[in-house]
Amino acid sequence: xxxxxxxxxxxxxxxxxxxxxxxxxxxxxxxxxxxxxxxxxxxxxxxxxxxxxxxxxxxxxxxxxxxxxxxxxxxxxxxxxxxxxxxxxxxxxxxxxxxxxxxxxxxxxxxxxxxxxxxxxxxxxxxxxxxxxxxxxxxxxxxxxxxxxxxxxxxxxxxxxxxxxxxxxxxxxxxxxxxxxxxxxxxxxxxxxxxxxxxxxxxxxxxxxxxxxxxxxxxxxxxxxxxxxxxxxxxxxxxxxxxxxxxxxxx
Length: 251
Known about the structure:
It is a single chain. This protein is α/β, with parallel strands linked by helices. The chain has two domains: 1-81 and 161-251, P-loop containing nucleotide triphosphate hydrolases (Rossmann fold, 3-Layer(aba) Sandwich); 91-159, no CATH class. It is built from eight helices and nine strands. Strand 1 and strand 2 form a beta hairpin. The longest helix is centred in the last third of the chain and has 18 residues, at 176-193. It is globular. The two termini are 21 Å apart.
């Protein structure tokens, strides 16, 4: 197990961030902080700018304003290692690429057709076992169900262990049992390795169970804070038209 301060990252500070596409403003004046050891949920209606914000953090969208990574010594940290699980993966489903090929090729500087070491395969199998998809180690990526593919994408995002894990609607196609397992695995990573996790999700019940903080966005930040503060706010009711029902959180 890594020590809590192993990554050197303490928090991510986003200050007056704006993203435009031509003359269109996609998100404007975003100000937020999220910390290591916390799962921060990013919520909002479709088209609110959640994925745009994520792409800016990933360096895939030009922006104004700043994104600063702060270390435990309160100084600017180097660019952290970021793991990313997209809502869906666009790929040729007829490709012969296996789960092992996909996961290991990204972290080893050698072509997949040369094969991988027993150690690499053993470590990958352990990660897949934690997500209950170890039986898919040598399956073609295109043969996986939607839920299985999302679990494989999570396993791939965790090697090497990131400082910041970004999950963009990561559980599409996952059944109810798989949902609980997915989020329990993510929360175990948060607790054991103290990584920062930013989650985009429409599942407000699961957010209430597992998130530490919530940020409500609609082009700009409407409100942010604890789960209860955000879910009981007028901004939440205006955005979604209702207040969510109470549901107990996971310990």
